[in-house]
Amino acid sequence: MKLTATQERILHAAAGRPSGDIEPLPPNVNAGIRQRVIDGLLKRGLIEFKGGYHRISAAGFEAIGKAPRSGSYRSGTKQARMIELMRRPEGASIDEIAQETGWLPHTVRGTMTNALKKRLGMTIVSHKDEGQPRRYRIA
């Protein structure tokens, strides 16, 4: 697949970001051509729109000769323990994660949004059974 220099620069930059996000675009992509560049990448399947962001796709990694990263994180950290809890079939509640990590509930929610969803690109689903706390799980 033949890429323009701009497309290649965008994909290489996105591949180097933990989130895979294409933003910020190179300085030569001004407001006038921004949407055309993004549309071209989307049409060729090199990027995808996910979680409100344009991110490099598996085809985008392949086009620049790199292997897609799976959301990587350091083991043995509180964040790693949170991910382990959320990967269980039953998932985990905010209180369970807070108790396990020693974090306050607002820190748990912030970590879900910023670190897991945005930076690592994980998909988090939740469900609530009657009379039970909401449970979160990594899909």
Can you describe what's shown?
45% of the residues lie in helices and 13% in strands. It has a three-stranded antiparallel β-sheet with strand order 3-5-4. A two-stranded antiparallel ribbon has the order 1-2. Helix 5 (94-101) crosses helix 6. The protein contains six helices and five strands; from the N terminus they run H-H-E-E-H-H-E-H-H-E-E. It has helices at residues 5-15, 31-43, 58-63, 78-87, 94-101, 105-119; strands spanning 47-50, 53-56, 92-93, 124-127, 135-138. It is α+β, with helices and mostly antiparallel strands and 139 residues long. A hairpin with a 2-residue loop joins strand 1 and strand 2. The radius of gyration is 18 Å and the shape is elongated.
- Number of structurally distinct domains: 2
| Shape by Cα distribution | elongated
Assembly annotation: single chain
In sequence order, what are the helices and strands, one letter per element?
HHEEHHEHHEE
Briefly note the CATH topology name of the largest domain. Arc Repressor Mutant, subunit A
Pfam families: DUF3489 (PF11994)
Protein name: DUF3489 domain-containing protein
InterPro entries: DUF3489
Précis, in short:
The chain is α+β, with helices and mostly antiparallel strands and about 140 residues long. The protein has helices at about 5-15, 30-45, 60-65, 80-85, 95-100, 105-120; strands spanning about 45-50, 55, 90-95, 125, 135-139.
